[in-house]
UniProtKB/TrEMBL annotation, chain A:
Cross-referenced CDD domains: AP3_Mu_N
Name of the encoding gene: Ap3m1
Record-linked Pfam families: Adap_comp_sub, Clat_adaptor_s
Protein name: AP3M1 protein
Matches recorded under PANTHER family: AP COMPLEX SUBUNIT MU
Length: 418, 960
């Protein structure tokens, strides 16, 4: 099981270590640094590294490497999932998962880690259980604590810890009872040079924010549940009900959580809401090139496409770019060679266009590869798959909750090859 | 008010200041001080000096303070064991606390303190906590048993905690069940033989019930445990599958993958005709695809596992090709894995899409990825015949880009395409030749030279091209030199008139000016071949080449089956069985897929399928090498294989090596594996795949009997089997890698034409290069000693192995060992010195002139006193008397006379040991049943203590 955890920042400092069994020397991280050096890019450090006596399994999140040390055969996914859970918990407790936040709350971090893992076995990883055991820091609480001498460690056994619904604590009370669901869909797509779709699928999630008193039992039904054939559920969902009736029936956790995630695969024909017209070319002898990109709407179901941003990793030989944008603004970073064009909203009457000259390093051979365009966008009030919530019913409690559903479609990994 | 303030006191008297604060009367100040101490501890500062002061703060009602002190204790108790005892009382008291949180905390912390004296006090509280009324305490206690077992396994067994833990599997609370399973699994891992998790239908039922109700982590433990269960029939397997399937929709990817493991394993038992089988196949695809939309780290592990699943059951994901298309901003480790799976899924139906993608990738920025993409195109051509033409034209397009590394990779794969489809695409040779000058990587140069040599008759200026390479012959790498030698010989055989000078030049370069034995040997062989019989030379060198396999780096099927049982584990990431690399696994349990019970075929009976036996018919390891080497090996292997069962050692080595080397290649680093698979000559790449065999053969022969060895290689027309060699046992592992910092040594002993040798395979399983090898023997009963130093020519790179035949003599110093044939060996390398001992079979000491005169035999037999006679039984031998006699003769046990008494054959035999001891034997062969014989062996010898070992030798020779 998980032996130790090291937190390492981008400049290679180990700023926190925690051991659940015997102490493992920091020097084990040298193997990690070695791999990091070899990978050049931080994103490319392999997640599983073997050393003569240990294995290092790491994740990279929010500019921090979470490096865990294991000694025996352990499912790596288990470790990776756990590490992500640790990062999520930090995020949840401190509002951000950063080196400063962790250093500022080092004792809470230590207490949390101790509570999350016992001898390498996960103990309590549900955020609301942890919050009962260790109270998140707030300015008010630290003031109160320093006056009254009370602590931020709970001294009773968390109620959810052993019940069949470990994700919910007992005795929740709200004056306004609310349940919100955000249906968020991201389109992952690869569009080839000619504009035809090589690959496209929709990654959807339903994120919920539930603030309901007592023990509400909810069921959520859809107009078109058939769309959902590949779904991952939060543990609270009763699988049998879904199998037989295609209804999500559950006692929700308190607060924010991800109810389901789902995938609508390419077979079902994913609508592509934007198109890109592009002309990028480099000339051998003049060390220059032309760049001309237009973005327009397509299959957007009558909604406005907004928040459009295009990023392009230009080839290394590109020195600078002189472009004019008919809409929005662009930046080019000559060090990282990243071109970013913040377009904003697309109005079909006047399509946004970015065009101009590319300056190449003189003497260098003309770049072989044409850059891929990475597009981001947002469409409010639309789930591009067509998924629609039918109704939400509540049982087990008497009050009438306020309910709301919001739809949003975004670009996920949306790439246009040129 | 943040915790960063705890770091600010870095003045000189920090420890002193803290000490004062810890002893303060004010609770608040105390707590702040402990927090500061903990903060220092988290960054690895040594604050152990404060131990007594911190422990003093332990007795408090403040839970936070208590927890903090416990945290500190866990970290430092080990370094201050005597002080830690002070804490015991508080612990024991806390274990009785009315608050279950405190009881659990106390027992949990005590388990973390790895001090013997403390663990003694732990037993009683732990026993109580295991039976606590509160499930939270029970579940904590369950894990504590695993902790305690790690510290003192004997204690746990003596105190009967294991039984209590087993009882907890039937606990009413699912969380307790899950933790008990987790604890038992961890304990079982260090005790592979123990039957801790004795699963039966009842306990399985309990686990399945708990599975639905416990936490996600508990589900992983339970699923992994279920995967070890062997259902009694297909109905049980199906019912378990049905109850596990809902886990595929879990949000936690580790749960999903563990569920996939259980299903993949139990599916093996279901009949393919079953409707349910089809349903299950369909259900497996979506969750696997979903894993690919997770974080890149998760994707990587998922992809490595999918790679296995695709090889085992390609039908699951055959329609999902597109999800493996690479996005330009995927991390490189994800890209490479996706590419690999794309090739595995490539088929006639989707090849157009795949090729279009691969062509796209070949223009990407990342060099490693581009190279792999280019190779992938070649692999597609070889795998999907219909696409070959398009692949070749794609490759030509890529060559036109003139991007150096793309061109080189393309040429390397085109060579393989030529091998697969001979005489089909030669029109492209002209284009290839244009790029001759830009090739600077050995592999590409070697490939190009091979092409020129192979198609010499169609290339007008082949001689000029090859001559141009010859100028810098000595600066080339070995693989290029070898290729060049072969190519020029091929050219000579095709166009003898114009190229005589060239061939002489290369032969002299190879034989006289080179100090590489492989090159020299090959040069000599060609030379002799050409000078004695050019017709034979033509037949040999220009022989038809065996076809290359379609899939180059498939995992060998038995290994694949084993790995399927390890889905989701580290083994699945490394594609090696855990025994090969996990240091902690103190014993090896080989897992295997369950046999299909529904089918008529009975599973192989265990005794007919020895584990790791030389599976000569494995489809996975058909060598792709096309040069002389393949030819030579064929030559060498051909006759004896079809000949009598008197397997000469050459054959054995060849066969074993084919397999071993091939496997190494397969299991090695992915790109490395690819590299050596498509390559063309011995010194290629890191893993030194199959090609090591001929070179060692040559080395042995040179060492032992140069003339006869070489003669044998050439002895094509003459009789087969002149090579005398005694029985050679298959190699066994003598020194496992985990005992020798990554060096694994396996070996065997052989005797050939009067000389004894120790055939070793050194494998580097560590991460660093090994060099400076040396070997030494301790004094032993027969004075065995190395006759030459251990020669490892090049440093041994990670994952590489080398075969060495170490000649031995018997002139070393003598000391009687127990057992008699024990040999203690020390091997040194740049890392350390390692010791191991091994038993050598006595028959390697049987000398060639061990045949006694008849008269002499009778006289000696009478002369040796009867008390020196020992009798042994050899049961169930399937050989006839003549076969026995000839088999034994192969190992220098000579039959002097044969008699038939009352229907039983009697053989009288003699043998002589290297130290001059004569052993006389009478062998009575009596049929026990129609096909087997029982042998009765009477041995007479003046030194009766050897008899037992002689008997063992008899048995090994006859039973193999």
């Amino acid at each position: 099981m998980i032996h130790s955890l090291f937190l390492i920042n981008c400049s290679g400092d180990i700023f926190l270590e925690k051991h659940w069994k015997s102490v493992v020397s920091q020097s084990v991280c040298d193997y990690f640094f070695e791999a990091q050096e070899k990978a050049i890019d931080v994103e490319n450090v392999p997640p599983v590294i073997s050393t003569p006596h240990h294995y290092l399994i790491s994740i990279y999140r929010d500019k921090i490497f979470f490096v865990s040390v294991i000694q025996t055969e352990v499912p790596p996914l288990f470790v990776i999932e756990f590490l992500h859970r640790v990062a999520d918990t930090f995020q949840d407790y401190f509002g951000e998962c950063s080196e400063t936040a962790i250093k500022d709350n080092v004792v809470i971090v230590y207490e949390l880690l101790e509570e999350m893992l016992d001898n390498g076995f996960p103990l309590a990883t549900e955020s609301n259980i942890l919050k009962e055991l260790i109270k998140p820091p707030t300015i008010l609480r630290s003031v109160v604590n320093s006056i009254t001498g009370s602590s931020n460690v709970g001294d009773t056994l968390p109620t959810g810890q052993l019940s069949n619904i470990p994700w919910r604590r007992a005795g929740v009370k709200y004056t306004n009872n609310e349940a919100y669901f955000d249906v968020i869909e991201e389109i992952d797509a690869i569009i080839d040079k000619s504009g035809s779709t090589v690959f496209a699928e929709i990654q959807g999630v339903i994120d919920s924010c539930i603030k309901l008193s007592g023990m509400p039992d909810l069921s959520l039904s859809f107009m078109n549940p058939r769309l959902l054939d590949d779904v991952s559920f939060h543990p609270c969902i009763r699988f049998k009900r879904w199998e037989s009736e295609r209804v999500l029936s559950f006692i929700p956790p308190d607060g924010n959580f991800r109810l389901i995630s789902y995938r609508v695969s390419s077979q079902n024909l994913v609508a592509i809401p934007v198109y890109v017209k592009h002309m990028i070319s480099f000339k051998e002898n003049t060390s220059s090139g032309r760049f001309d990109v237009t973005i327009g709407p397509k299959q957007n179901m009558g909604k406005t496409v907004e928040g459009v941003v295009m990023t392009v990793h230009m080839p290394k030989a590109v020195l600078n770019m002189n472009l004019t944008a008919t809409q929005g603004s662009y930046t080019f970073d000559p060090v990282t060679k990243v071109l970013t064009w913040d377009v904003g909203k697309i109005t079909p009457q006047k399509l946004p266009n970015l065009k101009g000259m590319v300056n190449l390093q003189s003497g260098a051979p003309k770049p072989e590869e044409n850059p891929s365009l990475n597009i981001q966008f947002k469409i409010q009030q639309l789930a591009i798959s067509g998924l629609k919530v039918n109704r939400l019913d509540m049982y087990g409690e008497k009050y009438k909750p306020f309910k709301g559903v919001k739809y949003i479609t975004k670009a996920g990994k949306f790439q246009v090859r040129t | 008010m943040t915790d960063s303030k705890y770091f600010t006191t870095t003045k000189k008297g920090e420890i002193f200041e803290l000490k004062a604060e810890l002893n303060s009367d004010k609770k608040e100040k105390k707590k702040e001080a402990v927090k500061k101490v903990i903060a220092s501890m988290t960054v690895g500062k040594d604050v152990s000096a404060l131990f007594p002061d911190v422990v003093n703060c332990m007795q408090t009602d403040n839970l936070e303070l208590k927890k903090l002190v416990y945290l500190y204790l866990m970290n430092y108790a080990k370094s201050q064991p005597d002080m830690a005892i002070m804490a015991v009382n508080t612990f024991v008291k806390d274990c009785e606390d009315p608050n279950p949180l405190i009881r659990a905390l106390a027992v949990r912390t005590m388990g973390c303190i790895r001090v013997d004296k403390i663990t003694e006090y732990l037993c009683e509280p732990l026993r109580k906590c295991l039976k606590d009324e509160d499930p939270y305490v029970r579940k904590t206690a369950a894990v504590c048993v695993a902790k305690l077992h790690d510290i003192n396994a004997q204690l746990v067994e003596d105190q009967g905690f294991l039984d209590t833990l087993k009882d907890l599997i039937s606990d009413s609370n699912p969380m307790v069940v899950a933790n008990a399973v987790a604890a038992l699994s961890e304990i079982a891992e260090s005790h592979p033989s123990s039957n801790l998790l004795d699963l039966n239908p009842q306990s399985i039922n309990k686990l399945l019930t708990a599975l639905n109700e416990c936490t996600e982590w508990g589900q992983i433990f339970i699923l992994d445990c279920l995967a070890n269960y062997m259902p009694k029939d297909d109905r049980e397997a199906q019912s378990i599958c049905e109850r596990v399937t809902p886990r595929l929709s879990h949000a936690n990817s580790a749960v999903v993958l563990s569920a996939v493991k259980v299903l993949m394993k139990f599916m093996e038992m279901l009949s393919k005709d079953l409707d349910y089988y089809g349903t299950l196949l369909k259900k497996l695809a979506p969750p696997l695809v979903t894993l690919l939309s997770a974080e890149p780290e998760l994707q990587y592990v998922a992809l490595r596992n999918i790679n296995l699943i695709v090889q085992k059951r390609p039908e699951i994901l055959k329609h999902e090709m597109k999800v493996f298309f690479v996005k330009y901003n995927d991390p490189i480790y994800v890209k490479l894995e996706k590419l690999d799976i794309m090739i595995r899924l490539a088929s006639q139906a989707n090849i157009a899409q795949v090729l279009a993608e691969l062509k796209e990738y070949a223009t990407e920025v990342d060099v490693d990825f581009v190279r792999k993409a280019v190779r992938a195109i070649g692999r597609c051509a070889i795998k999907v015949e219909q696409s070959a033409e398009r692949c070749v034209s794609t490759l030509l397009d890529l060559i036109q880009t003139k991007v150096n590394y793309v061109v080189q990779e393309a040429i390397v794969v085109i060579k393989d395409i030529f091998r697969k489809y001979p005489n089909k695409y030669e029109s492209v040779i002209a284009t290839l030749c244009e790029n001759l000058d830009s090739l600077d990587e050995p592999e590409a140069r070697a490939a190009m030279i091979w092409i020129v040599g192979e198609y010499a008759e169609r290339i007008d200026n082949a001689d000029e091209l090859l001559e141009s390479f010859l100028e810098g012959f000595h600066d080339e790498s070995t693989q290029v030199q070898l290729q060049l030698l072969t190519a020029i010989v091929k050219l000579f055989l095709k166009k003898p008139t114009e190229t005589q000078e060239l061939v002489q030049q290369v032969l002299s370069l190879a034989t006289q000016d080179s100090d590489n034995p492989d090159l020299r040997d090959r040069g000599y062989i060609y030379w002799r071949l050409l000078s004695t019989d050019p017709v034979a030379a033509k037949e040999v060198v220009l022989a038809e080449k065996p076809l290359i396999s379609e899939e180059t780096d498939l995992i060998e099927p038995t290994l694949l089956d084993e790995l399927i049982c390890y889905i989701g584990t580290l083994a699945s990431v490394y594609h090696k069985p855990p025994s090969a690399f996990v240091e902690g696994s103190r014993g090896v349990v080989h897992k295997g897929l369950p046999p299909r019970t529904g089918s008529i075929e009975s599973p192989e009976s265990p005794d007919t399928a020895p584990a790791g036996g030389p599976a000569a018919d494995q489809p996975a390891v058909i060598p792709t090498q096309g040069d002389l080497l393949g030819d030579l090996l064929n030559l060498d292997l051909g006759p004896p294989v079809s000949g009598p069962p008197m397997a000469t050692s050459t054959v054995q080595m060849g066969a074993v090596d084919l397999l071993g080397g091939g496997l190494d290649t397969l299991m090695g680093d992915e790109s490395e594996g690819l590299r050596s698979d498509v390559g063309g000559s011995p010194a290629i790449g890191g893993s030194g795949s199959f090609t090591a065999a001929p070179s060692t053969t040559a080395a042995t022969n040179v060492g032992a009997a140069l003339g006869s060895g070489l003669g044998d290689l050439f002895d094509l027309t003459g009789g087969v089997g002149t090579l005398s060699g005694s029985y050679v046992a298959p190699k066994t592992v003598w020194l496992p890698a985990m005992k020798a910092k990554g060096l694994e040594i396996s070996g065997t002993f052989s005797r050939q034409v009067g000389s004894i040798s120790m055939d070793l395979v050194l494998t580097n399983k560590a991460l660093q290069v090994m060099s400076d090898f040396a070997i030494q023997f301790n004094r032993n009963s027969f004075g065995l000693a190395p006759a030459a130093p251990l020669q490892v020519h090049a440093p041994l790179a990670p994952n590489q192995s080398v075969e060495i035949s170490l000649p031995l003599n018997t002139v070393g110093s003598v000391m009687k060992m127990d057992p008699l044939n024990n040999l203690q060996v020390a091997v040194k390398n740049n890392i350390d010195v390692f010791y191991f001992s091994t038993l050598y079979p006595l028959h390697i000491l049987f000398v060639e002139d061990g045949k006694m005169e008849r008269q002499m035999f009778l006289a000696t037999w009478k002369d040796i006193p009867n008390e020196n006679e020992t009798q042994f039984q050899i049961k169930d031998c399937s050989l006839s008397a003549d076969a026995v006699s000839s088999k034994l003769q192969g190992s220098n046990i000579f039959t002097i006379a044969k008699r038939n008494v009352e229907g039983q054959d009697m053989l009288y035999q003699s043998l002589k040991l290297t130290n001059g001891i004569w052993v006389l034997a009478e062998l009575r062969i009596q049929p026990s049943n129609p096909s087997f014989m029982d042998l009765e062996l009477s041995l007479k010898c003046r030194a009766p203590e050897v008899s037992q070992y002689i008997y063992q030798a008899y048995e090994t020779i006859l039973k193999n």
